[in-house]
Amino acid sequence: MSPYPIPTEHPFKTGWPDSLRRAVAGDAAARESFASFALAFYRSRRWRLLRSVPDAHHDDLTQDMALHALERLASYHERPGVPFEAWLLAVGSRVVLDRLRSDMARRRREQAWGDETHTAARTRPDPAVVARARDALAQLGAKCRLLLGLLQDGLRPAEMVEMARAAMGDPTLTNKRVADDLAYCKRLLAKKFAETAVAPMAAPETP
Q1: CA separation for the pair 203, 139 (Å, rounded)
Q2: Which regions of the chain carry the CATH code 1.10.10?
Q3: Which of 23, 29, 62, 177 is positioned for an S-S bond with 34, CB 3.0–4.6 A?
């Protein structure tokens, strides 16, 4: 049981679904009610969304998730069979993933620049190669970009699976499925990288 349950009498909940439609349309009172509801929702799901985040950052991230959901609300489109809470979880998961990736990147930079031997041996990458790699990556689908980004961040397999589940909103993802998808994405990236040397960018492929 969450220590922060969502009150059943919350105005946004009792006015559903009209309150959602008005909030999406930009009604100020409905948006204010949604912000309060979103904060209560993310507090009630902190145990699920913030397992990989130190406790000291929970309050700040919970508020960040609610603010981000409010900013993204105008882009919400209802899909048959997909509950609104799934959209909220996906938005919150993206905020958490971005924070974790930012923290990991910062730690890697600090470690790299703190190692004098490593720093002295650093070589500047060829800008043309970097540009080709970015062009190749841009042609991949969202899932491949996510998985390759997690791989670049240095996550262990179990961490990668956990973050992929959160980012995609799919708790059924297995280690094998993520590993198979990642292997496919690596092959596709290598193919696209080779093609950028001789051909213009093609339309994005999925996954």
Answers
A1: 7
A2: 124-199
A3: 23
Q: Is the dihedral of CA 193, 155, 61, 27 positive or negative?
A: positive
Question: Which of 37, 38, 48, 29 has its CA nearest to residue 9?
Answer: 37
Please give the average pLDDT of every successive group of 10 residues along the chain, which has 207 residues.
53 78 88 89 79 77 89 81 81 83 68 52 66 83 82 73 75 85 88 70 50
Considering only the top CATH level, what class is 124-199?
mainly alpha
What's the rounded Cα separation, in Å, for the pair 70 and 32? 9
Is the preceding omega at residue 125 within 30 degrees of 0, hence cis? Answer: no
Alpha carbon distance 28, 44 (integer Å): 24
The CA-atom distances, in angstroms, between 168 and each of 70, 97, 137, 172 are 20, 11, 19, 10
The amino acid at residue 150 is: L
Distances (CA, A) of 205 to 136, 138, 139, 147, 192: 11, 10, 6, 15, 10
Separation of alpha carbons 51 and 49, rounded Å: 6
User: How far is 160 from 151, CA to CA, in rounded Å?
Assistant: 7
Amino acid at position 6, single letter: I
